[in-house]
Amino acid sequence: MRVSARKIKTLLLVFSIVIGCKSNYTKVTKTEQQEVSIEKVNNNPVIRHIRTADPSAHIWQDGKVWMYTSRDAEDAVNYNSMDGYRAFSSTDMVNWTDHGEVLHSKDIPWGVPGWMWAPTAIYKNNKYYLLYPHSVKGSKDDMRCGVAVSDVPEGPFKDIGWIAGVEGQWLDPCVFTDDDGKTYLYWGVREPKMALLKDNLLELAETPRSIAYGAKNFFEASYMHKYNGKYYYSYNAGLGGFYAMGDSPYGPFEYKGAINPKQRQDHHSIINYKGQDYFFYHWQGWNEGSKFRRNTCIEYLYYNEDGTIQEIYATKEGVQKIK
Q1: How far from chain centre, in Å, is Cα 206?
Q2: In what order do the strands lie in the sheet with 276-283?
Q3: Please, where are the H alpha helices in the chain?
Q4: Which residues are catalytic?
């Protein structure tokens, strides 16, 4: 069948229009993809102007996220030089206000310079408290669990002593208040312990007890949070974060496995903010970090239908800004 030159010209015109439309569509799609990727910037580590570690995240009465961290020295070759806790706040999880140093070893009359390791925080009795491990004489074996108080979340905090009956190695305290107002302290290295605290936060209300968590891989950094009526006891096993679940803040807890398995230096905290769960941790791998020069990072946290936690992996992308 012969096709006239006029028909061929018409067909070519239609074909070029179709190709042109498809090309334009592709360009729009690419443009849209570029716009999306622009939004997904690398937000880890979240604090870059100084070295921070051991992030203890909380949502206080002002509706902001508050984060209290320890501080690594830029020239550190061990952890003994860690000195001074820092407070940060945010309303969008990306932009953080640095409120400066809130407590320093020079403000602690019973301790030595340095040795200010992982802190925890709590709002109770209409005041803000920092609980922290600190060395009396300059050894990891003579740590105490100090307590400091402030009328405002940004500090400064004033030391008011230590909790009797909580001594030993670096402790890594975590404080947790249940729905009934009772407050519990979790601590320990290699052997996790816990006890109910008196309301003054300076005394134990009971004899400390060991934590049954269904495994034998605990190393440090106890953490407790609650979700849908279940209690989640998590910790660092020396090879990343692991966790167990239970029906009571005392346990016993059923071991569930890894939560953050790839980050050797996992020391985490968990919050729910504006309907999204977040996982705070420190990491040495970015921002020219090292084992003793760490950086605070944040990832999204997700639960499965049965309440277990989906494994978390460190990303440079981190979390995106809340609009």
Answers
A1: 29
A2: 269-273, 276-283, 295-301
A3: 5-39
A4: 54, 220
